[in-house]
Specification:
Length: 159
């Protein structure tokens, strides 16, 4: 039996951004300028988590902390907005995506977040299932959300 290398989760650092942007470009059509990633590392490092295997970054989740109305009642709250989550294809289905999300949400709580939300393509069954397992529920649909015209589910969870 081949022994699996351990997965290490830690906060993203500015010098990780080349690797994070590589994972983003391999995995998602939604790509962003370096300054966008850098802003999130600078402001919310506890909720911007990378997964490393043998010293290589194989996944990340980037989060923004926002204030807004709760998805669960009429009150003003602090929220963890999941901006981007990705795991390199050859490292999927090992629990890395879920572990990244859990750690980012723990970090977000340290910034005062009490709930989280995200947008996900309505056809992205893998990601939707992952979010449901983490207690996210569909709260609405943003029509034409993506540049190719696909709709997004808005999903939210208490954390
Ligand atoms: C969505 C994504 C991040 C999930 O990453 P992941 O590391 O595969 O996530 P997990 O391993 O935690 O969970 C995925 C599945 O693997 C299963 N799994 C986890 N550990 C496992 C193991 N040891 N053996 C077999 N299956 C396992 C999970 O139960 C889950 O199954 P399900 O889809 O049937 O519920 C990944 O598919 C990805 O990068 N997709 C492209 C980018 C993307 O869509 N991002 C989200 C945008 S909103």
């Amino acid at each position: 039996m081949v022994e699996q290398s351990p997965i290490r989760l830690r906060s993203c650092r500015p010098d990780d951004l080349d690797d994070v942007m590589h994972v983003n470009e391999v995995c998602l059509p939604e790509n962003y300028p370096r300054s966008f990633f850098a802003e999130h590392v600078m402001n919310y490092p506890k909720a911007f988590i990378v997964a490393e295997v043998d010293g290589k970054i194989v996944g990340y989740v980037m989060t923004r902390i926002e204030k807004g109305f709760s998805a669960f009642g009429f009150k003003w709250v602090t929220k963890a907005h999941i901006i981007s989550l990705a795991v390199l294809p050859q490292y999927r289905k090992q629990g890395i995506g879920s572990a990244l999300m859990r750690k980012a949400l723990e970090g977000a709580k340290e910034y005062g977040a009490t709930e989280s939300y995200l947008e996900v393509r309505v056809t992205n069954v893998e990601a939707i299932n992952l979010y449901k397992r983490l207690s996210y529920e569909v709260k609405g649909v943003n029509a034409d959300y993506y540049s190719d015209g696909e709709d997004a589910y808005v999903m939210a969870a208490r954390i």
